[in-house]
Amino acid sequence: MTSEERELLKRMDAGELDGMVGDMFQTDGGSTVWTIIKNGIPVRFKQGPGGKFFNGKENERYEGVLHTLAKWMTDEERLDFLRKFGWLIHDAAVNAYSAKFKPKK
């Protein structure tokens, strides 16, 4: 592990990189998928589409079920996350680290 990688992990642990990674997107089935970093742990969530039904008196709305699709827990997994998705994070050091692993054309 290089000093750059140690520094990035330290910043993740400190919560400096917490927040949304990229944009939310809709699947063909209507589910919403998003990725966040919370407390230094990157997590990808998926929430199914909500809906409504008539209960005999009025329409009742309900939210879709929330699923955790992926969680990057170990240091190596978190570094893999930064290599793959670092270009989506608004931080110059993370963008530079991710650019080193960008596939060559």
Helical residues, percent = 25-40%
Q: Report the strand count.
A: 6
* Integer-rounded radius of gyration: 18 Å
Estimated share of beta-strand residues: 25-35%
Average pLDDT number: 94
List keywords for this structure.
105 residues, alpha+beta, four-stranded antiparallel sheet, two-stranded antiparallel ribbon, 6 strands, elongated
Fold blueprint:
Elements: H1 3-14, E1 19-26, E2 32-38, E3 41-47, E4 51-54, E5 59-62, E6 66-71, H2 75-85, H3 92-99
Antiparallel strand pairs: 1-2, 2-3, 3-6, 4-5
Helix pairs in contact: 2-3
Describe the structure.
By secondary structure, this protein is of the alpha+beta class. It is built from 3 helices and 6 strands. It has one domain. The chain has helices at residues 3-14, 75-85, 92-99; strands at 19-26, 32-38, 41-47, 51-54, 59-62, 66-71. Helix 2 (75-85) packs across helix 3 (92-99). The longest helix is centred in the first third of the chain and has 12 residues, at 3-14. It starts with a helix and ends in a 6-residue tail after the last helix.
What's this entry about, in short?
30% of the residues lie in helices and 34% in strands. It contains three helices and six strands; from the N terminus they run αββββββαα. The strands form two sheets. A four-stranded antiparallel beta sheet has the order 1-2-3-6, covered by helices on one side. A two-stranded antiparallel ribbon has the order 4-5.
